[in-house]
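Hello Y.,

Per our agreement to keep a running log of every chain we model this quarter, I'm adding this entry. I've kept the format consistent with earlier entries: sequence first, then predicted structure.
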Amino acid sequence: MDLTLLSDNNTLIDRYFLGEPGFSAFIEDRDARILFDVGYSGIFIANAQKMGIRLDRLNYVALSHGHMDHTWGLDALVRFLAEMDIERIPYARPKIVAHPKTFTSVSAEGFSELGPLFSEDKLGKHFDLSLKEGPQWLGERVVYLGQIPRKNAFEGRSSFGRKENETEENFVVEDSALVYRGEEGLTVVTGCAHSGICNIIEYAKAICDESRIVDVIGGFHLQNPQEEQLAGTVRYFSELDAPRIHPCHCTDLRSKIALSKVAKIEEAGVGMKLRYA
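Predicted structure for the entry above:
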């Protein structure tokens, strides 16, 4: 499996790509070409083109959750594919894989909209849709986890505004992740990990019936975290015994420094390419 980071808060040094507070990764396995999240804007397309990645050949667009920094790039992707239609250029029609609540509007104080810009009906004109709460296998070795059980008391407890037509706080129940099941163990790819990075890893182990973790890549939802959450996460990773991890996007410096004391953290940013057996 090959993974390339197309959008992140940072870019690799001396690599001239565009960055933004968003996340997008391209994953290619032998039987699947997957775009995981689409960032905040269209920079993932510009970065992909510079790296020679063909987004007109996607099989899947998997979305970790509905927030703006992971879904607003859908506007650029729709334009990209629509313009290929105009020019009569053939392309693969990708399937969007997500939780059923991913495309519900979300507002909060200071944000008239921090959720998706597209409705299910609108997206259905451009993509096939597969919206399910449970896991979905995207090929033989890559699984979209679906809704993550939140078992740890120290994480997955933060709310973000309210979803449209709902009175309770929004705990981003749709938050999910991708997992690659390789010969050496599991590679877990997260968007923001609102459901808790440790919860995600434990659910990945259960779904894949595999306890070995090769790598964890993406947002760990450790942006100015409470001490209880940071301490619990550090404690968990001290026992995980992963060869390396790549925290990025919504993981702040203080959290990375704390995690570096118990795990091998490697640099992540737009332009990063990783290969797994």
